[in-house]
Amino acid sequence: MPPAATDRAQAKKPAGGPRSVVLRALLRNKLAVLALAVLALLLVAALFAPLIAPYDPNTQDLLIRLRPPAWQDGGTGAHLLGTDQLGRDMLSRVIHGARVSLLVGAGAALLAGVIGTAVGLAAGYFGGWADRTLMRLADVQLAFPSLLLALAVVGFLGSGLWLVVLVLGFTGWVSYARVVRSEVMSLRTRDFITEARAIGVTDVTIMRRHLLPNVMAPLATIGTLHVAAAIVAEASLSYLGLGVPKETVTWGAMLADGQLYLGTSWWVAVFPGIALMLTSLAINITGDALRDVADPKAYRR
After folding, report:
1. pLDDT tens-digit map of 142-192
2. Which of 23, 120, 246, 285 is most buried by a 10 A CB count?
3. CB of 89 within 8 A of CB of 98?
């Protein structure tokens, strides 16, 4: 290649490697940047809730029950978002509710991802009876609505934070398994897999070192969206009184407590509802952005 052509090719080559290309693609998406900023604030609030929250979320004071937000008549700067029916500070409860929501969402997505990835790798790589057996198991799982199955298990075994994580994790692995299986089936006939088999590389090593890295991009997208779904599912369980214990602050339980006061003290239900909506929306927008970045065509937009 002539020197001038070489210089032009090097000038067109993105600087900084694939990671910088991915980062630039994300930063070009203004909506994704805003969603990431919201998630960063929620993460900080969840990690440092005892330091940020002005009050203990369970401290009751009936003398100031149903105090409106600070900007309304009768409100006070001591309780920026008002108080609930038991005089508990709404801002503190919303901040502490983020801890449970993010923990359940991340934990359930991680557990479902591990199970689904293992099933998908085995089904796609080995094929045959292993594929048929595992996929029929996935079909059986899909036959039961996830939330209904979670309700049945939690109702039978009782409430508990880690029980909710386990239930939502074990009921959400099918989407991971199907995507990983599809990707692996398209990769297992490639030359690098055939050559690895020819030189005696074990099946476990091939799946771990050659197949798994190639399915991480779709897994990241699915995992992000599953976090939002798990957060909404946990809120639904808590709303029905079958989630985490009553003394644990959750947005779903706050919604259940506030539904009776919508006509008179709207803030008791509206603020946890807004927090739940913003969290789910931010996570879904981030998942869509990751999906676009995972597509090589996205770099050229």
Report:
1. 888 777 888 888 878 777 888 888 888 888 899 999 999 998 988 888 888
2. 120
3. no
Which DSSP category does 74 fall into? T
Task: Check if the beta carbon of residue 202 is closer than 8 Å to that of residue 163.
Answer: no
Cβ burial 32-52 (10 Å sphere, 16+ → b, else e): beebbebbeebeebbeebeee
**What is the torsional sign of CA 164, 169, 170, 172?**
positive
- pLDDT per residue over 18-56, tens digit each? 556 666 766 777 888 898 899 999 999 889 998 999 999
DSSP 89: B
- Secondary structure of residue 14 in the 3-state scheme: coil
Closest among 113, 107, 54 to 79, alpha carbons compared:
54
d(CA 21, CA 27): 10
Report yes or no on whether pTM surpasses 0.85. no
Residue 240: exposed, middle, or buried by beta-carbon count in 10 A (0-12, 13-18, 19+)? Answer: middle
